[in-house]
Structures are given as structure tokens and as C-alpha cells.
Design brief:
Protein name: YaeQ family protein
Strand order of the largest sheet: 3-4-5-6-7-11
Number of strands: 11
Oligomer: single chain
Order of helices and strands: EEHEEEHEHEHEEEE
InterPro entries: Restrct_endonuc-II-like, YaeQ, YaeQ_sf
Organism: Roseateles agri
Shape: globular
Pfam family, one: YaeQ
CATH superfamily: Restriction endonuclease-like alpha-beta roll domain
Number of domains: 1
Length: 186
């Protein structure tokens, strides 16, 4: 018998001073049976860091991710269905990233394992011609601290200022300092 996804609810209150994005977002997250708290919380963080200031050109959506290999974890699509931003987590292979780069206006990857620098050094040279690709590492200790905030129903305040991210609940707070392994060219 197949296991069903577990539903989590998150209310995000975002104050991103670096991008001038402020708002409140209700997310319903279908957590795949094989997904960890850490991965789910990185997915929520990636959503918060990439949510557009408005939905005039389309909106950011959580996708099937682990359940469908043809979809990212998160994407932003315009009103015609064109993919504006493809967001993946973990350590996808270079073929997946090249395919995503061909389909989307921007591609972002958020790695969160301690082996992320090793993974990136192995594929970095194969992706030098992908100017719209950005790769970020969330330090493992920080992503694990973020995972400790996971609950079935969450209220998260996410503040971004000068590249630092502060995620706060009524019980705890976590500081996250992402490391840019590759930035997208404008």
C-alpha cells in the first residue's frame, strides 16, 4: 500500500528588505512520504526568497517536485503558462539543470547538504554556459536548525536583510547565511 503525502500548513510573513517584498502568504505543503523536515523547510525558504512582489506577471507555486521528475520543486509561471523561474533543491544532475535552463527564464538551485560544494565542483564546468543559473548553498547546520522549526501547522516570520535571513516562530529563531556558489548574470 502506497503512503500518502502529509499535509502541512504554513503562514509566512515575509519582510524582504533586499528586494522590497513584503506580504503574508498561506502555503499548503503536500509533503512526500520520503521528504524530510529539512527538505520541506528548505522548500518553504526557497519560496520565501523568490516570491515576486506582485502576481501581475504570474505567481510562484509549489510543484509536485519529488512526485514528478518533469517539474521543479517551485516554479513561477506567467499568465500564458511560460516558466519564468525554475527552482530546484538538493543536488540535481547537470542534465536536469541544462533542460531546466532551456525551459525557463531563470533557474535557481538551493543545496543544503554538507556535500553540496563537492557536488557543485563536479558539475560546475559543465554549466558555465548557463548564464541564467544561480546555485546557493544553505550551510548544513543552518538547514538542520531550520528543520527543527517544522510543525504540521506553522507561523513563520521571515526577514531578509543584507543577505542574511532570519526565520522566527513563537518558540525559536534561526539565522541563515546562504553562500552563492554561482550567481545568474543579469
Amino acid at each position: 500500500m502506497a503512503l500518502n503525502a502529509t499535509i502541512h500548513k504554513a503562514l509566512l510573513q515575509i519582510a524582504d528588505m533586499d528586494r522590497n517584498v513584503y506580504g503574508e502568504y498561506n502555503l499548503t505543503i503536500a509533503r512526500h512520504p520520503s521528504e524530510t523536515d529539512e527538505r520541506m523547510m528548505i522548500r518553504i525558504l526557497a519560496f520565501a526568497l523568490n516570491v515576486p512582489a506582485d502576481d501581475l506577471n504570474g505567481k510562484l507555486e509549489l510543484c509536485k517536485g519529488l512526485s514528478d521528475v518533469d517539474e521543479p520543486e517551485i516554479w513561477e509561471r506567467d499568465l500564458t503558462g511560460e516558466i519564468l523561474h525554475w527552482i530546484d533543491l538538493g543536488q540535481p544532475d547537470e542534465r536536469r539543470l541544462q533542460k531546466a535552463h532551456g525551459r525557463a527564464g531563470r533557474v535557481s538551485v538551493y543545496g543544503f547538504a554538507s556535500s553540496t560544494p563537492v557536488w557543485w565542483s563536479g558539475i560546475e564546468n559543465k554549466l558555465t554556459r548557463q548564464p541564467r543559473l544561480a546555485v546557493w548553498q544553505i550551510p548544513a547546520a543552518q538547514s538542520q536548525a531550520l528543520a527543527a522549526l517544522a510543525e504540521r501547522s506553522m507561523q513563520l516570520q521571515i526577514n531578509v536583510q543584507d543577505g542574511g535571513i532570519y526565520v522566527t516562530t513563537d518558540k525559536a529563531s534561526v539565522e541563515i547565511l546562504p553562500i552563492a556558489l554561482k550567481t545568474a548574470q543579469a
